[in-house]
Amino acid sequence: MNSEVQQKAFGKYATLAALLGQKAALELMPEHEEFKVVTGKVGSMDLKKVISSVETAAKRNELINPDIYRETHALYHAIIEAAEGVTRGKLSVGEVMRTVGLSFAAVRGYPYKDPNEGEWIAVCFYGTIGAPIKGKEHETLGLGINHI
Amino acid sequence: MNSEVQQKAFGKYATLAALLGQKAALELMPEHEEFKVVTGKVGSMDLKKVISSVETAAKRNELINPDIYRETHALYHAIIEAAEGVTRGKLSVGEVMRTVGLSFAAVRGYPYKDPNEGEWIAVCFYGTIGAPIKGKEHETLGLGINHI
Amino acid sequence: MNSEVQQKAFGKYATLAALLGQKAALELMPEHEEFKVVTGKVGSMDLKKVISSVETAAKRNELINPDIYRETHALYHAIIEAAEGVTRGKLSVGEVMRTVGLSFAAVRGYPYKDPNEGEWIAVCFYGTIGAPIKGKEHETLGLGINHI
Amino acid sequence: MNSEVQQKAFGKYATLAALLGQKAALELMPEHEEFKVVTGKVGSMDLKKVISSVETAAKRNELINPDIYRETHALYHAIIEAAEGVTRGKLSVGEVMRTVGLSFAAVRGYPYKDPNEGEWIAVCFYGTIGAPIKGKEHETLGLGINHI
Amino acid sequence: MNSEVQQKAFGKYATLAALLGQKAALELMPEHEEFKVVTGKVGSMDLKKVISSVETAAKRNELINPDIYRETHALYHAIIEAAEGVTRGKLSVGEVMRTVGLSFAAVRGYPYKDPNEGEWIAVCFYGTIGAPIKGKEHETLGLGINHI
Amino acid sequence: MNSEVQQKAFGKYATLAALLGQKAALELMPEHEEFKVVTGKVGSMDLKKVISSVETAAKRNELINPDIYRETHALYHAIIEAAEGVTRGKLSVGEVMRTVGLSFAAVRGYPYKDPNEGEWIAVCFYGTIGAPIKGKEHETLGLGINHI
């Protein structure tokens, strides 16, 4: 990232956590230790279930405060942006005869030096998308980032 | 990826190459050595220029044969799918007052065990998207995969 | 509207009817008295139900003639355009874990001075969109206009 | 809005300001006096110019702090959501032979009772869209809302 | 078409005219003689130019009355729907490094038995889309239909 | 098509097969005899069923090899591109209260002179789209093309 001096690449950190696991991500980017990370897995033909899996994991692990709507709103839009990458601009899974098997990572913290920039959230999905038949699938990826 | 036994995760390999560079990607995934990789950088408000940068790099480095349209066609759709992730379903950059600064990796090879599956191509973009003012930007990512 | 001399702002009238009710709209824009107005409410996670609520209200109140397909066709496209505003370009509600609670107004009449321009229809939705939890939502709005 | 007890309808307020002007909006919704409002006009075939007109007005009138990226980011996404309504899901103007003439209102404040919900921003466009010939146009509207 | 008894397949007629020329279309579907047809060709990287070529041909050949906005509006939406087929949901040509070479046919008349259904318009594009290099392209097609 | 000397218009051939039937298509374009064609019909409010009807017909008639994922992948994307034309960029049927009644043709072969270009697939849908009421519908069309 060509502005690494000004901000921490917490989206890269979320992506490495989704690709390689949280521990490997931290080894590669130890300076991101202060960011809070939640990871999980979800497989479905139902985009609703993909969205709610991340929301549930984020609430259960206190990545976001479920009582504050602005936190839910920030997370929701980050999830949807990541899902645009996974579905490559179609935002449909089962409706167009596809199924997904995804790992996800959600990361929260202060990526910018200036404390006025506040907290941001990154959501990354990585896994497979394809026909609902084992092996008839290829990889897919998506990243969403939002201020919280 | 939940079918790693059946296929090589060459999309993950492309993503690590875009995020960390080709050398680091190979260290993390040495079993992908036989895949051909091309990397590059492009910064622009013009999506056309982003697309043509990958195409030019792929042709110049013989990742694809420029005389065969099916190879151009396969690469083009992989680029567009990756761009859907970067722009999160809008496929516009300058038209909506955004600029991107991206690293890219394009990877070609045989990800499936069955040789009848033939060659596939993966394109990954990683970098920043935002207002055309230094620092007013956040990270972005996209991955496209196609048979060649 | 910068061509108010040439046409009546019946889309504004539909919007005020959705926002404030039909009576308040007429008080603010009494010169639109000759336009026919139908209003209603619908809450759902199912976009189909949102569409059919407006269609049913329009047919039951004789805003359109249900036996003439061109009237159904004109209304349908006005509803879909209004729904694009409500969903901000995604045309999905429940599939992406959202629910809507909407007031709507459909208005029919002659907005242009030239009688050859014939009748037009405007559909406006106003209400809330958000997570399927009370209070975890914000406002949303959409307007569609078509010749009939 | 069916949750008016829990939140102020500042999106409705922004819409009335775009439709009727800031003074008329305040007369209709006096309880929104504490919200900060910026209004303006823009006519163009270029969506970039529409976006930058709102950004410039918001910065010049101190609706947002131009030095904090999260404020620019929140405003940008609210503008884009409003533009989705105006263009009804296509996010293009001149590229598809259309021109727009728009009034806009941007509103900032605390719509939710709970102070932890913090500040939010609403952007509304109202005006005309059509062929680049006077009179060959109809009304259009869009509303975007984001936490800031 | 499974309702051919109730309506004339004037969209099929427009498609045959774009594929084979107006004369061949009429030979295959002589019962459509009363429909008015305009055909033309356009090659461009600029979607605006594609749209305006059809509009100009339709006005010059009196398929629509240029002084009545509802006719321009009906034609415009039929063109855009046909362009969605050509670009397969992206509504961009040059912006995503593609060029098109298209034949088009626009057809106007009464497809439904019931005279209250009035006049409708069909627009069909057929040709090639691809890289801006001769031969690096494949066929493309789109059909839009609207009441007038 | 302005490059007919360089390639066979097998997309036109698929379209004529969907519009007029396979026999009539072959009479009009006898030089396409070597292409393999599969035709069928499907009516549904469910896009999944439309997609799977073409996939099932293509597998049952050995147009594609069901054991090779690249063939399924090539066909799937051709179907989705054709469905973008049918739904005009929305990729939804029942979710937006529409139903379709479609004929389809899928064609496979070598359209380019250069044998290195290999095999390609074309999928065309033609039929009606509209309200789920007999007669409240108009024609629709879509064509997708992919290398296999």
UniProtKB/TrEMBL annotation, chains A, B, C, D, E, F:
Keyword terms, alphabetized: Activator, Histidine metabolism, RNA-binding, Transcription, Transcription regulation
Pfam families for the chain: HutP (PF09021)
Gene Ontology MF terms in the entry: RNA binding
GO biological process: L-histidine metabolic process
Gene3D superfamilies: Hut operon regulatory protein HutP (3.40.1510.10)
Family, similarity comment: Belongs to the HutP family.
Stated role: Antiterminator that binds to cis-acting regulatory sequences on the mRNA in the presence of histidine, thereby suppressing transcription termination and activating the hut operon for histidine utilization.
Subunit note: Homohexamer.
Name under which the protein is recorded: Hut operon positive regulatory protein
